[in-house]
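User: Just a sanity check before I run the rest of the batch. Below are the structure tokens for the first item. I only need the designed sequence back.
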């Protein structure tokens, strides 16, 4: 399931540059990284060249509101007309909106959400029950843990 020369092609989707900087610095051997800063860019990049894995940030509070996926109108209705809460939900859960969008774009490969689901174990179980190729790695994970998560996710996809 890896790209040319056995190199794993990873698309990082984040609203900053922290993951790209850290992963290319500390988790580089045998892995090639590309980056998208929002869901639309991620969809386009997946169509152009399918990655072996998507490494996806959950929270997107540093990009323009216009670049967020999801309908703030629908979310505002869900939050009893509280537009501020709706926008915060949209930003803090943007990774899930992007996950849905890349699945709609036809990407069926593994996705690692960078988020600490340890305190929300039931939530992750519900998400992964609907999407078995979904994995997570805590935001604060060290390089060895991140590398293991990437290799395990790609390996498990190859076995499926």
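Assistant: Here's the designed sequence for the first item:
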């Amino acid at each position: 399931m890896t790209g040319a020369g056995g190199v794993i092609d990873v698309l990082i989707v984040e609203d900053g540059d922290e993951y790209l900087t850290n992963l290319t610095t500390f988790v580089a051997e045998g892995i090639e990284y590309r980056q998208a800063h929002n869901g639309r860019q991620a969809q386009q990049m997946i169509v152009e060249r399918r990655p072996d894995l998507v490494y996806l940030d959950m929270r997107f509070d540093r990009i323009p509101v216009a670049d967020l996926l999801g309908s703030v109108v629908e979310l505002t209705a869900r939050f009893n007309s509280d537009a501020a809460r709706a926008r915060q939900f949209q930003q803090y859960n943007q990774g899930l909106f992007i996950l849905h969008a890349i699945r709609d774009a036809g990407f069926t490969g593994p996705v690692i959400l960078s988020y600490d689901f340890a305190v929300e174990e039931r939530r992750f179980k519900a998400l992964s029950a609907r999407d078995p190729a979904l994995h997570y790695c805590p935001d604060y994970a060290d390089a060895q843990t991140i590398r293991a998560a990437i290799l395990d996710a790609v390996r498990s996809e190859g076995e499926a």
